[in-house]
Design a protein that fits this description.
mainly alpha; 2 domains; two-stranded parallel sheet; 5 helices
């Protein structure tokens, strides 16, 4: 399943055809519904303002390395107030251990 908003980049045939050829289910949020995917929207905002906009990457490989490092930091080191000052990884493990 690939979920997006209805931006023109996601509704173009250039984007959709490769997904359809691989039989990937496509889901699109309702038009004008930014809150449909608020957690991901907030993550992208944080990533841009706390990392991307503060750096000038010289090439795509440097960008990939920087994003990988930041996502590792975000998930395993950065404590989140909304998760009771746990990292997302800590919260996830704690949340799912009761089902095992």
């Amino acid at each position: 399943m690939f979920n997006t908003d209805q931006g023109s980049q996601f509704t173009s045939q250039l984007f959709l055809v490769p997904l359809q050829e691989r039989q990937v289910a496509i889901s699109m949020d309702s038009k004008g519904r930014a809150l449909d995917n608020i957690f991901v929207e907030r993550f992208w905002r944080t990533l841009k303002y706390k990392h991307v906009y503060l750096r000038a990457y010289s090439d795509g490989l440097s960008l990939l390395k920087g994003l990988t490092e930041y996502i590792q930091f975000y998930n395993y080191e950065r404590k989140h107030q909304s998760l009771g000052y746990q990292t997302p990884a800590q919260w996830y493990v704690e949340s799912w251990t009761c089902y095992i």
